[in-house]
């Protein structure tokens, strides 16, 4: 585990929400993989702020942090949330999801993965699969597949994905 490299420093470009979520996930995995989850809080905080990079440290220093909070890993880890993840505009997030169509030369796995990622901020709760399935059907670029999907009364996301994958394979063999 000593040979594991920490994740790269945070680059505050693009969607800060996605940048922070990605860094947080990679850092959490790094801490688990290196067995440093049992370090004292202040050491984990030091590791986090060192790995996050100079810009992240500068931003962290701008937060209102009481001295006792500064050594609490969970509190320090939660501070960037408000900076990087402002309140979600569900209407906008739904618009982004519902505007998504399959791009030319985009394979179905990429399209479905992107739909799943975009749906995370739409607050679908328990019904998350059906809106993704619906967007897959509506956004599918192959008219013949689209017709087949619309005919199926018991269509699930998994079934729709499999049907699209099969159509892609058939197209490849025809080429």
| CATH top level assignment of the largest domain | Mainly Alpha
Broad structural category:
mainly alpha
**Given the structure, what is the number of helices?**
9
> Can you name the CATH architecture of the largest domain?
Orthogonal Bundle
Multimeric state of these chains? single chain
Strand content: under 5%
Describe this structure in words.
The chain starts with 15 loop residues before the first helix and ends with a helix. The chain has two domains: 16-84, no CATH class; 90-174, Non-ribosomal Peptide Synthetase Peptidyl Carrier Protein, Chain A, CATH 1.10.1200. The chain has helices at residues 16-33, 41-52, 54-61, 73-84, 90-99, 108-119, 129-139, 143-151, 157-174. It is an all-alpha fold and 175 residues long. It contains nine helices and no strands. Helix 6 packs across helix 7 (129-139) and helix 7 (129-139) runs parallel beside helix 9.
Describe the structure concisely for a colleague:
The chain has helices at 16-33, 41-52, 54-61, 73-84, 90-99, 108-119, 129-139, 143-151, 157-174. It is an all-alpha fold.
How are the secondary structure elements laid out?
Elements: H1 16-33, H2 41-52, H3 54-61, H4 73-84, H5 90-99, H6 108-119, H7 129-139, H8 143-151, H9 157-174
Helix pairs in contact: 1-4, 6-7, 7-9
What labels would you give this structure?
single chain, Non-ribosomal Peptide Synthetase Peptidyl Carrier Protein, Chain A, 2 domains, 9 helices, 175 residues, mainly alpha, 63% helix
